[in-house]
Amino acid sequence: MNPLLIAVAFLQLDIESGTVTKRNWPQQAEPVPIGSLAKPFIALAYAEGHHYTYPRLTCKPNQCWLPRGHGELSIEDAIAQSCNTYFDILRKQIRTELLETTARRFGLQNPDRATPEEILRAYVELHRRAAEPGVQPILTGMRRASRQGTAKLLKLDALAKTGTAPCTHTPKAPGDGFAIVLHPASAPKTALLVQIHGRPGAHAAREAGTLLR
Ligand SMILES: [Zn+2]
Is residue 74 a contact partner of residue 43, using CB atoms and an 8 Å limit? Predict the structure, then answer.
């Protein structure tokens, strides 16, 4: 096995000071595909062009990672369940330049690939801008993710988002799971990013719960 391959990588920040408090991430300067972790920024880019309102959309069977489909979703549900169909539809309605500009406002130089620290700081910035138009529904969705959505294995009341992205390790797995957690939900003090090799984002959330307890 590649000595740089570890099953669980993580990066933790103290939100108030912005300092890194825990780090176990080989090749930390290497951008990785961020996959579903881009969804909040896709949503915000969409909102900017659509009077800051989000649609209700239907995820039908066999369109999404959940074979039976997610049914009708609000933005909050779509974030909580990480519905691919919902965000694919939003993504098709925004110009790439708008997505790039929005992502850059949160420190993401590229909305598809970023270093672990860029990703984590982008979510801290998202929370810091909670009062800006369009942001609150996303944070509500992240809280719902930790309670009954894709991050429920976290077993903590937090703001969370999971994701799966193409594996960047050797040997290659079908995908790597990610979880971003801002904890506790009411007034987050700690931000944590976990990457788990070859497992879905739900498992990354469970690891995050262990790291935060
Ligand atoms: Zn779906």
Answer: no
